[in-house]
Amino acid sequence: MLSPALDTPLHINTPLLLSPHIVLAEANVWLKIDALQPAGSFKNRGIGVACQHYVRNGAQILVSSSGGNAGIAAAFAGSQLSVPVSIVVPENAPQTAIDAMRKFGAEVEVNGSTWGEAHEKALRVVESNKHKGAVLIHPFDDPLLWPGHATLIDEVIAAGCTPDAVVLSVGGGGLLTGVARGLAAHNLSDCEIVAVETCGAASLAAAIKAGMPVMLDEINTIANTLGAKQVSDAAYQATQSHPVTSQVVSDRQALDACTRFLQEHRVLVEPACGAALAAVYEPAPVLKDKQNILVVVCGGMGVSLPQLSAWEAQLSVEKEA
Ligand SMILES: *Cc1c(COP(=O)(O)O)cnc(C)c1O
């Protein structure tokens, strides 16, 4: 018998809040609080859709290469669909993320010093388990993710909010691609997307500069879930077919935004999400004439109060050095 979870979304319709705290002169600031998703981030959306699709088509094992929220979302999806999940994570994956994956019943293997190496290993795991029905769940570059991520825009429109700007953060660009497609589907092709990265993980900014996706030499940021060295082709294409403004913030700005957001809204988010918030706390110039600014509060489980303090300490040491 097929699990009933195949037919119902694995994500929830998250609260859309007109922020009483983030007040810009001319604009309403709307917060789509995907930090409240069951796996802690917007990844529930696309990963949930992708996992359902693969299981419906016979997948017996879901293999993920993400040491972060995509892996957690895959673990959650597998638990809902009663399908085993195997996750290869790089050595720098936060313990909180690994714990969350295991809590949702996934098997976690640490392999490789970077996401790229973990991903290579995950591909080999899929290859050698193909006959058992293993499939790869890519963290950001699979067309199945995009309609899932686009549900975020569907919900905002259904709630009666028509944004003229969307602020979101970019790692490999799955969220950006899904949101751009969601906006286009609602005839909002001229709605500006402000795509925010931290300066140690600015792979979209580099792609726009080069005129194609390029590989960064290294990742150096506390916003580790933004740490894709290269954005997907689809994400780069989205910057060509949709008005996208790339914005780069410092780790300091991202971290301060997390702290301020926690104080104001009592929700704790990763610096990956703080990056997007930083672009409204210190408004990007392109937001100046906008009336309804939607901020994707993408969330993330790789954060805790002690971790926030540790990043504080790390950044103040780096400043003195
Ligand atoms: C994955 C993730 C991102 C980046 O999403 P991409 O689709 O890789 O661009 C941003 N914030 C959080 C919390 C994430 O988990």
Which bin fits the share of residues in helices? Answer: 40-55%
Low-confidence stretches are none
Radius of gyration: 18 Å
Count, helices:
11
Bound chemical compounds: pyridoxal-5'-phosphate
Largest sheet: 6 strands, mixed
β-strand number? 10
Per the principal axes of the C-alpha atoms, what is the gross shape?
A: globular
Order of helices and strands: EEHEHEHEHEHEHEHHEHHEH
Q: Note the gap between the termini.
A: 61 Å
Strand content: 15-25%
What structural class do the secondary elements suggest?
Answer: alpha/beta
Question: How would you characterize this protein structure?
Answer:
- The protein is of the alpha/beta class and 321 residues long.
- The protein is 42% helix and 16% strand.
- It has eleven helices and ten strands.
- The strands form two sheets. The chain has a six-stranded mixed sheet, sandwiched between helices. A four-stranded parallel sheet has the order 5-4-3-6.
- Helix 1 (43-56) crosses helix 2 (69-81), helix 1 (43-56) packs across helix 5 (145-158) and helix 6 runs parallel beside helix 8.
- The radius of gyration is 18 Å and the shape is globular.
- The termini are far apart.
- Pyridoxal-5'-phosphate (PLP) binds next to helix 2, helix 6 and helix 10.
Short description:
This protein has 321 residues and is of the alpha/beta class.
What keyword list fits this structure?
16% strand; 11 helices; binds pyridoxal-5'-phosphate; 10 strands; alpha/beta; single chain; 6-stranded mixed sheet
